Amino acid sequence: MSDSSTPAGGRFVAPHQRLYVNIDHVATLRQARRGAEPDPAEAARLCEEAGADGITAHLREDRRHIQDRDVDALAAGARTVLNLEMAATEEMRAIAERIRPHQVTLVPERREEITTEGGLDVSRDQDGLARLIADLKRAGVRTSLFIDPDDRMVRLSYELGADAIELHTGRYAHHPDAPEPLAALDAASRQGASLGLAVHAGHGLTVRNVGPVAAIPEIEELNIGHSIVSRAIFHGLAASVREIRAAMDAARAALPASGTPA
After folding, report:
1. pLDDT tens digits, residue range 180-201?
2. What whole-number distance in Å separates Cα of residue 79 and Cα of residue 56?
3. Coil, strand, or helix at residue 52?
4. Could you count the other beta carbons within 10 Å of the beta carbon of residue 100?
5. Residues paired with 146 in a beta bridge
6. Residue 239 and residue 146: Cα distance in Å, rounded?
7. Looking at the annotation, which residues are catalytic?
8. Is the Cβ–Cβ distance between 217 and 259 less than 8 Å?
């Protein structure tokens, strides 16, 4: 269930919009030399100290950045919570059940892609997804499905038993001035919240484009990584986390009390 409040006559509003920092690309830099530095677990600690509400890490099948040892270290050492992104496979299910992160976000995965290129098609293998979600719930792990902002995908996510949806913001990030991508995110957020799903969002968000997404009342959580790690090269990791946290907070502060954007 969502932890949003519902103003009378208004929309669901998350009282505090969480920032989960994805530290995958700290590991990408380390893996360039297969060494020990920089350490993703240390990066996670700095992000938490700077105001991150949680840490996100994607353990890919090909282990291109985050490694199994990183997941173990993050699960043991996170001062906030760990959101483990993973494909819907038996290997990953076993890992999630062993380390029991706060949340698992199920994502699509193709070896040839540079980064996740779209949402999970939850209309495929619905029985398998439902079983996996049920298994994770029995292990005490909440589940989120990374989907495109599409009404059918939102509805199916609810029917499969997910606790949350994470809306893929890639189309908006590539076309932030076009009205259609933001409108799709807004509509999917309303629909998800109306069904009792927690609504998250992420992919391609930066300090320059995060405002309109952060201002969607129903969105409780943003997952942001590449932009923060990239800006950290010039500004430092803690400063980059604080910078995007401030942009999110400014967008939320502009919402009227009813939760309906002005």
Report:
1. 999 999 999 999 999 999 999 9
2. 13
3. coil
4. 14
5. 166
6. 28
7. 58, 85, 203
8. yes
Could you tell me how many helices (H) and strands (E) the chain has, helices first?
Answer: 11, 8
Inter-CA distances, 123 with 8, 50, 154, 191, 239, Å:
35, 39, 10, 17, 41
- The alpha carbon of residue 190 and the mean position of all alpha carbons in its chain are separated, in whole angstroms, by 18
Residue 97 in tokens: 């059940």
Residue 226 marked as a ligand binder: yes
The tens digit of pLDDT for each residue in 147-171 reads 999 999 999 999 999 999 999 999 9
Spatial distance between the Cα atoms of 15 and 2, rounded to a whole number of angstroms: 11
Q: Does residue 33 have a known ligand-binding role?
A: yes
**162 touches 133 (CB < 8 A):** yes
| Distance from C-alpha of 12 to C-alpha of 23, rounded to nearest angstrom | 29
Burial of 194 by CB count in 10 Å (0-12 exposed, 13-18 middle, 19+ buried)? middle
The pLDDT, as a whole number, for residue 8 is 33
The residues near 215 (Cβ < 8 Å, ≥ 6 apart) are 251, 252, 254, 255, 261
Cis geometry, peptide bond prior to residue 38 (ω within 30 degrees of 0): yes
Q: Which domains are present in the chain? A: 18-253 (3.20.20.70)
For residue 204, is it left (φ>0), alpha (ψ between -120 and 50) or beta? left
Q: Determine whether the annotation assigns residue 102 to a binding site.
A: no
Structure tokens at 231: 């800006």
Backbone angles phi, psi at 199, to 5 degrees: -115, 120
